[in-house]
Amino acid sequence: MGGVPIYLPAPAPAHTNRANGRYPCGRMMQPPAYVEHQKAVTIRNDVNVKKETLRFEPDEGNPGKYLVAFTFDATVAGSITIIFFAKEGEDCYLTPMKESLYPSITVHFQQGLAQKFKQPSGSGINLSTFQEGELSKDNLGVYPLAVKAGASPDKNAESGSTNSQITQAVFEIDKGVYKVKVVKQLLWVNGMRYELQVIYGIGNSGDWVEVDGNDRGKECVVCLSEPRDTTVLPCRHMCMCSKCSKVLRFQTNRCPICRQPVERFLEIKVSNGTDE
Asked: What residue ranges carry the coiled-coil annotation (predicted)?
């Protein structure tokens, strides 16, 4: 399904008493604040909207209106809901803020990979009726477009079990043409909210990974021998092995790649394709 999402818990940020890397005269040099080391949690994503395929297509039957289209994978049957001007509430519930103008559209689908979705004709949006500021950014948590792809409840699953992916997007003008720009993708699995993150430096996992062009090797940048399996947060550079990261966290609070402050280390074990 294009990789495994990573659950990133949100602990309180680390604080130090340092200013610009120096301590006031007369004080003893103290080691960097302790940095938390965590292991990634992988979860199953039953329905995945390929964000790079999300786009507008003209509604040939209704001039001036545009339909949302994209490609998605589904390992189970389910439904896709298109919501314009959606606000996320508790439990990832999406509220359409302009329901009277653009009612939500739900379309059911069956299991299958590389499926093509296109919003039904007549249900599209007329972009010319809005000001650019209403479309190019989220306003107070309201996104111009939200796509909710949900798996059908398993009859054998516990009551209340849910699995859905939410893609939130804004619209941008490129040479006079509106295009869709994905801002974030979320997963809602059995009452837990996950956010898909891009990790730089893995190089051999799925579509959710982007490799930093300036980082060619797959070895730890500290020992230059062990494979890298630890990501620095919040900058998301996967550049060290777990052993070196456990030593580094007592020596410095800077990422070896970009020198940004380190809040956490996240250990990610990447499958080599032999594991089931």
From this structure: none
